[in-house]
Amino acid sequence: MDFCLLTIILVTVGFIFPFGSSFDPSPFQDFCIAVSDSKSAVFVNGKLCKDPKLATADDFFLPGLNISGNPLPGMGSAVNVVDVNRLGGLNTLGISILRADFSPFGLIPPHTHPRGTEIIVVLEGTLYVGFLAPDTVNPLKTRSFTKILNPGDVFVFPQGLIHFQYNVGHANATVFGALNSQNPGLIVVASELFGSNPPLVEDVLSKAFQLDKKMVEQLQGLFS
Hints:
CATH class of the largest domain: Mainly Beta
Number of domains: 2
Mean pLDDT: 86
Low-confidence stretches: 3-21
Family: Belongs to the germin family.
Subcellular location: Secreted, Extracellular space, Apoplast
Keywords: Apoplast, Disulfide bond, Manganese, Metal-binding, Secreted, Signal
GO molecular function: manganese ion binding
CATH topology of the largest domain: Jelly Rolls
Number of strands: 14
Shape: globular
Protein name: Germin-like protein
CATH superfamily of the largest domain: Jelly Rolls
């Protein structure tokens, strides 16, 4: 086969079937309800699956997204996440949902979801949101993509990129969000770096953030 023709075919196939387009595998059955009991179950994508013959409507149901979730200490915000760990029926379906509530000037600090892209819609309040991405000209630098959002506005945070949400208004704010993963994961940048167990060597953090060791110790004590 002509090399140019082969190249065109490979490029075309790559566009139609993009490699690595999703981290959650496509389901091989209608549902695979996650359970902790190994009896009459099979292991799929990190979870044991209930025998489909035993499935009920309750396996796909979870109340409570009308209320705020777990508060983030000292941040003035709370997050209510519904992923596969709370709703077994999400297993292998590649989706999860969340609700975030903010008091005035409340913050969801810079964090990433290593396995999921997040999209949010503002229900009430005014938020300053954004994410960081490598500069296409100088990969050693980053670009910030930020926006002020009002009720009805939508914003998307690409998978794996550091992002944040900050209530800049004097009233409470609420957003709903969705992620294209049943278990998107969460890495909060500051607490992961300064609150790891066991703690990172002080020299690493001191040089990385251009801080003296005393300040590093104070931050490690705060986040631990």
